[in-house]
Structure formats: structure tokens, C-alpha cells
Design goal:
By secondary structure, the chain is of the alpha/beta class. It has 15 helices and 12 strands. The strands form 3 sheets. The chain has a 5-stranded mixed β-sheet with strand order 2-7-6-5-4, sandwiched between helices. Strands 9-10-8-11-12 form a 5-stranded mixed β-sheet. The protein has a two-stranded antiparallel sheet with strand order 1-3. Helix 7 packs antiparallel against helix 8 and helix 11 packs across helix 15. The longest helix is centred in the first third of the chain and has 31 residues.
Length: about 400
């Protein structure tokens, strides 16, 4: 992650008398690097999130300078520093008007300042901040993927005033592979994930909260030291809004952690929310809350999955084998019967069968399994087996 422009401004104001003249709304922009640009032709080479410095040696008249500033903003630059003096004596009104309207920060820097020193100091500041953030990201990832090795991550977390019981806001984002394999092969996933992470970083930067965002396989994980309340909802809505721009190219399913997300259970939250994302995809829900895990939370906490598989086989195995061998639909009919609370008419409609045919199949199911459809216990056992079956299909 990069540094917030506001932090650079605080340093440059005191060391170099750099002054903000317009676009203060953009002070929460993130900055990856400082770069000098003197000609319009070079703007297209920018990657975004650069703090640009210019002396105006080539673009000095007002009309050209306004076009220059507009081009920088549209390219994704974080702000512009104008070295006032020899070539530009004052910031033109047109530049100030555009910058204020666009929220694009424009600063002035006295001509006496040596740009070599200025660039070196700011780049060192950016590099130091990035190193600290990389250390924090590594520590939090170890808390998730190597949670038993506390000595490897807790010292770094303590340096950032994070303790075992520090509450976090966690969102898991899942981007399943495109069903069209050829289209997915042509899609640049690396560039897509890069842009998505940068947009999420900017959201948290604007709220000035400590955050870590990283990608692993088809998931992007967002962890932020953020208080509960409306700000969390705002983050979810902002991600949802900008994700609509790529909805035709990439599906997004989000799972939002609850208020009990702390350092010592981050690894469990990562596991549970990843599963919840896949569950949301199956149900057609793009945003799920952790509370929707329901009984699946219990299944996820069971270390021995074979126990669940054994139970499922005991309850549904024989019916499944008969379906495969004879073409019957016992599994489907029984599931529908349980989900409709034993309403034969609804089962008939759902399965496109006559009521008498449904009754016949249900009677056969009872004979095959040795269980009673009117028994609350037997129905509960079957229902549990179906839930386990769904769970096993998503892990």
C-alpha cells in the first residue's frame, strides 16, 4: 500500500514550505511515488497514484496548464506540485477552478527549494511507509495462515498497537473463474486484481483507517482496524458500487465478518468467510453476512471431515445409489418433501409429478431406509444429512 498525500503534505509544508492552493478534497489520495513531468506527451506513461512535480518549463501558459492538470487527474495522478518562480510565477485561476471542482490537489513549492532534495526526502518517506505496511501485511497474513506461530507476527502487530483482542472489520471477496474457459483465458486476472486492490485501498485511505488488503488464489481479503457502525456499511456499499463497472467481466461475491473478529480468530474468520462466499454464489447472493453461516459454522469447526461424510453416506447413500442405478429421483423428492414441511401438493408441483406418484415414492423411501416420514427425529436426521451434503459440496 502507498502513503496518504496528506501525510506527505504535513512533512513538505514544514521542511520545504510547500503550500496547498486548491483541491483539498483529494488530500486522502494515495501516493506510490514522486515523479517530475514537464510535457503533456509524457502524461500517458503514468500508472496512477504519482505525485507530479513540474516547473512549467514547457507547459506554462494558462490554457495549456489547465489541460495539463486535467490530463494528470484523468490519468489517476494523486496531485501536482508546481515549482513557482522562474517559469510560472503564480497558479492560474483556471487551474485553481478546475482543481477545486475535481478535488485534485495542487500545491506550490518555492523556486529556492532544490528539487533533488525534495524528491529524495519524499521518496524515502514513501519507501519507509511502504516497508512498514509490508511488514504489517506479512504479520496479519501469518496470523491467518500460521496462527500457531505467534512469535512470528505478534511483535510486529504490537508495534502497530494491535493486540490479540483488537477488533477488526473483515471482508472476503470471491471472484470465481469464468464459466466460459476461453473468455477466462483471455481475461487479465492479474491486472484486474491489481486495480481492485488499489480501489479498495483508496476507500480505506479516505477514511484514514489502518488496513491490509491481499490476494490469495481467487480471493481478495480486506482487514481493517475500523469501529463498528455506519462506516462499515459505507465501505460495503462503495465496493458494491465500483464493482458494478466490471459486473459483465467478473462475478463478485462478498462475505462480511461480524463484530467478534479479532487477531486470535482471524484464521477461523478467513476460513468461514471464504466458505460463505461460495455459499453465496450457490444461492445467488452477492453480499452475505457471517450470521448466515448458521449451522455451517459447526461443520467448519470439525477437523475430521470424514465424520461428516460418513454420516451423509449413512443417511442418503442407499437412496443415491438407487437413483444412479434405476433413474429414480428419491434424493430430490425427499429433499423437496423436507423443505416444504411435508406438503405433498407442493412436492408434486416442484417435481412435476402426480400427488399419488409422490406418495408412492415417499412410501418406497421409507421402506428402503427403514425410517418413518412422520417421525420428527427421522426427518431431522435426513434434513441434517442434506445440509451436510450441501456443505461438503462447497468446501
Amino acid at each position: 500500500m502507498a502513503i496518504i498525500l496528506e501525510e506527505i503534505y504535513e512533512v513538505a509544508l514544514h521542511r520545504y514550505n510547500m503550500k496547498l492552493v486548491a483541491g483539498g478534497r483529494g488530500l486522502r489520495n494515495l501516493v506510490d511515488w514522486v515523479h517530475t513531468v514537464e510535457e503533456m506527451d509524457y502524461v500517458s506513461f503514468l500508472k496512477g497514484r504519482e505525485l507530479i512535480i513540474t516547473t512549467g518549463i514547457r507547459e506554462k501558459d494558462e490554457e495549456t496548464l489547465v489541460r495539463f492538470v486535467k490530463s494528470l487527474h484523468e490519468t489517476g495522478a494523486s496531485g501536482l506540485v508546481i515549482n513557482i518562480g522562474k517559469y510560472i510565477t503564480r497558479v492560474p485561476r483556471g487551474v485553481i477552478a478546475y482543481s477545486e471542482e475535481a478535488g485534485f490537489p495542487v500545491f506550490t513549492l518555492p523556486w529556492e527549494v532544490h528539487l533533488v532534495d525534495f524528491n529524495r526526502d519524499l521518496c524515502n518517506l514513501i519507501y519507509k511507509t511502504m516497508q512498514e505496511q509490508d511488514g504489517l501485511e506479512t504479520a496479519l497474513q501469518k496470523a491467518i495462515f500460521s496462527h500457531k506461530e505467534e512469535q512470528q507476527y505478534m511483535p510486529v502487530l504490537h508495534e502497530n498497537h494491535i493486540h490479540k483482542d483488537t477488533e477488526f472489520f473483515m471482508i472476503q471477496c470471491y471472484f470465481p473463474a469464468n464459466k466460459d474457459i476461453q473468455a477466462d483465458d483471455k481475461f487479465d486476472n492479474t491486472q484486474f486484481f491489481y486495480r481492485f486492490i488499489r480501489q479498495c485501498q483508496q476507500i480505506f485511505a479516505e477514511k484514514k483507517v489502518l488496513s491490509v488488503i491481499f490476494q490469495r488464489d481467487l480471493y481478495i481479503t480486506l482487514v481493517a482496524k475500523m469501529p463498528t457502525g455506519t462506516e462499515r456499511e459505507n465501505v460495503i456499499q462503495q465496493i458494491k458500487t465500483f464493482s458494478e463497472s466490471f459486473a459483465r467481466q467478473k462475478e463478485l461475491y462478498m462475505a462480511v465478518g461480524d463484530e467478534e473478529t479479532v487477531v486470535e480468530n482471524l484464521w477461523e474468520k478467513y476460513r468461514d468467510l471464504s466458505y460463505l462466499c461460495r455459499w453465496g454464489r450457490q444461492k445467488g447472493k452477492n453480499i452475505c453476512q457471517e450470521e448466515e453461516l448458521s449451522i455451517s459454522r459447526l461443520w467448519l469447526s470439525i477437523g475430521n471431515i470424514k465424520k461428516l461424510e460418513k454420516y451423509r453416506e449413512k443417511m442418503l447413500g442407499e437412496l443415491e445409489r438407487l437413483d444412479q442405478e434405476t433413474g429414480s429421483e428419491y434424493i430430490r423428492i425427499l429433499k423437496c418433501y423436507l423443505e416444504t414441511n411435508g406438503n405433498i401438493g407442493e412436492v408434486a408441483t416442484e417435481c412435476y409429478l402426480h400427488r399419488n406418484t409422490v406418495s408412492y415414492h415417499l412410501k418406497k423411501i421409507a421402506e428402503i431406509t427403514g425410517k418413518t416420514l412422520n417421525s420428527t427425529k427421522d426427518r431431522s436426521d435426513w434434513y441434517l444429512a442434506y445440509q451436510i451434503d450441501e456443505f461438503l459440496g462447497l468446501i
